């Protein structure tokens, strides 16, 4: 059920697009296609939507923590080969992840593997070992993707390591933006990934903001208000949403400050992010709640739509609701919230 | 007189450019060209400047509201075919707008027609009917312009629908940015419109930020502080001003909160927007005042220029004024404010 | 010693890059190359790093102020031919600067000459006179660089005016961004300068944000919070750091408000700027302190690294420190701060 907020977001993203080709009103009330999207958990482009409100890192060499994942009720767990694993433990992490993929039932949690970066020289060995698992991870993450060359390398490596495997679905690829250069080239990089996925073994499914490496790269200092990364965050949302893929917001580093976490999570959701990285299990419920609609919002949306239908009957266009003029963009938002609430049984 | 603030803004925009080709000081005190710009209401590029501080939407099918426009003292009224009109009323709206253009004396208010979007399939019919009016609208608006293709379609349709008409002036085109993709492509789209206008029947005159559709597209939620659209707003100002065209800021949706409206209007003016969309007549005076210079500012500007002239005589460059070092950029701002105040008789 | 903070920033900028080609940990603890960078004051790319935390303007025709520069303990003094000098005093300014360069011992302060803009028609005469000095300025600044053409013109003029001189080092070029167009084209302009410097007499070393001309160009009003230029500031940091060059922040115009100056200086440093323009000597110590690390930060960094080493021994990756999960990006920041503190003897 958790994925439906994201599905909603995808609907939001594609609303304007659809109304470009048919007409807005036709889309808005086309219950047929709507039901299809929601009940089959497939987005408008035919791809199954995977919720990733909270994205939790688990060191790949820590078997105890990996086995605890199914109890955490987290949308997405990242079995990490990269920053969470010391250099001396890389080989151990790869083997542990491979076995965990086959042995642990992760339930509703998506298990993603984060490889080391292309330039680290470690990623090919990561893939070689992890892809020996009987159950392949549905999604892989690549940190520090800096250029079109990196995306091309990933595409070729996937052919190399998966040539003997039969894939039911393409593997989802999620990339990290962690430097000034990669942010400036983000649209080009993502567009190349989209193009390559046509005949490739993967589909680009999201972008993650690696804020600490990014700040180190530009010489910035992380602050509580995160003003220093506002441009970066909004650019990432902008490019991701222009390609109808997910955008995952920065880590809230002080994991004991749950109040601050909540504020930053809500802010990220308001900005258009579809999820947020977390580094401790205590952050999961707060983040996952922030990326779902509030009771007030649901009530507002239901009543607005009720009144709109009455006004629509009367042939009027814009109308007043709770002291505000309402037109179609607001209606579309309300419609999406109501759809989501119905499926979440809120 | 209301248009002069905008004229001022155009002067601001072009100040740096002009000083690129001649020399700053020559421009600054060239009273000849200055007087010409102000008294003839023509901008530096020979195009008449049209003030659009408040841009008010009026549903095209609502004859009562349309007839009320001349009493509102608004810079710009949008006779709307798009979001303010129910699908069942589109034909009625077109015909009503056509007759209103010929029958109503709108006085100092510019009457603009907003067509339906290119992708709606309704825009060609909109233009066909509206352009039957004896008095053509000086300006048309197109919502949801997403690509260079859209601009080319508009250009061709104008030739088609206006081939039997004699135009005294080219028609002003104002486009809406309402999605992630269109924001990313904004400069390319606008540049194509500028190029096409060379031999076309239109001139690109402004960009409007359609914040609700934009937020729906990126999955963002509108908040009071509007932090979620800060990048979008600043990008729109940046691209518009790089092409010396107008930039119209987002709607303040809660039309009963006039205090909030005032704050957001002042913020928009400070950011470089030349006007703001309004959805209720009560918003007009607040917005129009926010986009005009304050008494304090005028007094500051007059005194600064007086002191500068005295220092200039003495051959000194930078000088101190009220505890601040003053150089030419500040002088240019002051000069523009004084010119505006003189014409507004403030 | 003041330059080391900037050296640190350069290390930050290049940290992620280096770890792309070798591996992070190898870089992190490679004391050999680290010592080389710090003690020889050379950056990773072999170019000597010049600190410019505070960048002070001094009118080129004001001999009294110019002679006072060595007493000010400022990183960088700009001997100005442009906005600080009245048109009637341009020739006097050029000659005064030429003589000051040869006669005054500026000590630890770098003396930079700001020419008039390319489009002013004055820049060629500026260079002709200034480059007659026996001691050439190590760095020149060009205001209002608007296009690739401007950069090409500067490159050619340098060949013309310096053809009879033997250069020990290439001349550093710093350009000003002062309009919407130049901000939109910033990356292209800077990349062209980097390309031209391959066989040219200069090296692009930084970008300065000329906020007053920029605001005049976009029709914005400068406010205390500077929200109206947030996009511009963050874009300048982004492009500069992607090319590993310096970024110099806006002037704080009210030079009597030292509290406000301090806040804005710290904000700029947090955003990734390497320095800030100042217009009065009283601003220098505040700005230079803001662009150096705090005692708290140094203590945090030292302790973090101590604990990391202990954890590293034990083979663990991410670990907890003062309630926060620490991984490599944070480690790199801490490492850089410790290196800096050692050399500053803090």
Automatic annotation (TrEMBL), chains A, B, C:
Its cofactor is Mg(2+). Residues 53-281 form the HpcH/HpaI aldolase/citrate lyase domain. Keywords: Magnesium, Metal-binding. It comes from the Eukaryota. PANTHER family: CITRAMALYL-COA LYASE, MITOCHONDRIAL, CITRATE LYASE SUBUNIT BETA-RELATED. This is Citrate lyase subunit beta-like protein, mitochondrial. It comes from Limulus polyphemus.
